[in-house]
Amino acid sequence: MSLETNQVHLDQPYRNTPFSGKKIKTLPLASSMGGEVLDVQLKDLDDEAFDELKQALWHHKMLFLRKQDLTPGDQLEFTKRFGELGTDAYTKGLPDFPDVQPVLKEAATKSKIIFGGGHHTDSAFLECPPSVSVLHGVDIPPYGGDTIWYNSVMAYESLSPAMREMLKPLKVHMGAERVIAGMRDSMEQTNNGKQMTDIELDLDVEKMVKGSFHPMVRKHPESGELSLYVDGVYAVGIEGMDRRESKPLLEFLHGHATQEFFACRLRWEADTVAIWDNRICLHRAFNDYDGFRRELHRTTVMGERPMSISD
């Protein structure tokens, strides 16, 4: 697919502007999305500040904070302020904190794939995928291991009116067949074949592959924004179409949604925390830090069943 045939309209009215509340202030990370929250500790937010943080999250799609003094217990308590904790579909949690999932690659480990290495929205094959994800950088390599996010609202709005109208009634089949196949091809034969890099897996393969059908145009329950709910990992089909029909459309939409024009990229530091809304953005990690240890702790918030434009 050439850039010329997949280029967005450059007259987009979108601007990623700072958020300024009484207690929460941000600086935009990139022109399309992302914001740095300034001068606060997440564990110390009062109710007014937390409400402003949520508004900043809907505004920027992804937030990050530096120099956070956060224990696994602190991270859990903060995450629960968004709602019920989500169920991780892949990994076992920390021994003393089963709802905190380690994202780990040891310095000596070499692997063709890493956890989160494709463009995706978290666990989209679930009936109720996670809404908000929180990731805390614990041990960070001196370079490499960045994460990149893409604004799915902007991706939808930049499509032609005819394409937007065509997509509105469609449902995308989100399943984990590509992930499972990739794991089987490159998984290291340790821990009875249930380990990818250094993350212990706990998989319900049948349920993951079966997946769920979700609106391709998704309505955000808080902001009312419409976003393109298609990714490059879990979007495997379209309801009512065979694979030959759905494949080219899904490939076009994936390529469209992951243009650099929609993106922001975060360079991790120790004690950086990133928060993002899986309903309105995609993300991916990079496997470019062999020889260095990288450990992050992830918590998720239980999401609602994805809403369609008519809900």
Count of DSSP H/I helices = 7
CATH homolog superfamily: Clavaminate synthase-like
Give the DSSP E fraction (strand runs of 2 or more residues). Answer: 15-25%
Low-pLDDT windows of residues: 1-5, 188-196
Q: Pairing-aware structural class of the strands and helices?
A: alpha+beta
> Radius of gyration, Cα only, in angstroms?
19 Å
* Series of H and E elements: EEHEHEEEHHEHEEHEEEEHEEEE
Q: Give the number of DSSP strands.
A: 17
How is the CATH topology named? Answer: Double-stranded beta-helix
Q: State the major sheet.
A: 7 strands, mixed
How many structural domains are formed by the residues?
1
Cα shape:
globular
Average pLDDT confidence is 88
Distance between the termini: 34 Å
Architecture per CATH nomenclature, i.e. the level-2 architecture: 4-Layer Sandwich
Helix content: 10-25%
**What is the highest CATH level, the class?**
Alpha Beta
Strand order of the largest sheet: 1-2-3-15-5-17-4
